[in-house]
Specification:
Oligomer: heterodimer
Largest interface: A-B, 28 and 16 residues
Number of helices of chain B: 3
Strand content of chain A: 35-45%
Strand content of chain B: 15-25%
Strand order of the largest sheet of chain B: 2-1-5-3-4
Distance between the termini of chain B: 31 Å
Order of helices and strands of chain B: EHEHHEEE
Amino acid sequence: MAIRLQDTPFSPGAELERFIAANPDAGGIGSFIGKVRRSNSQGKVLSLTLEHYPAMTEHMLREIETQACHRWPLQSCLIIHRFGRLHPGEPIVLVATAATHRDAALTACTFLIDWLKTKAPFWKQEQILNWQTGDIGSGWVDARAEDEAAAARWE
Amino acid sequence: MKIMYFSWIREKIGKAQENLQPPNSIATAEELMDWLAHLGPAYSEIFGISTRSVVRVAVNLHLVDITHAFAPDDEIAFFPPVTGG
């Protein structure tokens, strides 16, 4: 089980290769990559700033991983999450799981990202170029009801 | 008591954290929000009865219900619903 919180970019490809090599006995590897979106309903995303509550984020991600390993027969899992300033297209989060068979790997991976999105204390603020007005402004991203619903199905 | 604020709650109040001394009678997160609402206009905008439903509370790194009773040394944080991932 590994958790990495960092304010520097990471390469999901390189991290996954490393994860796969570190789990040679796993027949199934599951993964999810979340990236900075390029636009929202108001305009073009120029940058994304991720604020977080350091001590609680570490603690919650550890709890989420412990839950996953308790519910499914996982050999290993990995969560890498950025904070700080990111640009469109940049990876925000990588979740990876290793198990003997695909069901545990894929299901646990979905569980990890669903819970992370409602329990890990990060807040996104987007810098937007408004399509209609041409103005540049900042706005905090709202939490989505769909994310709460997705997390609730695992209760 | 150390109170931390995040996201737009932090922006509205104008600080990331502060040390406050609420009266000893204040025992729950809900009572603390009632008290905070009286500290100023920014506080009442956030912690007022009609607006506080969007505020989440964490005590010692765990999300808690507003009825949660805290101890004087607890680390308390207020923030909007999280948006990581």
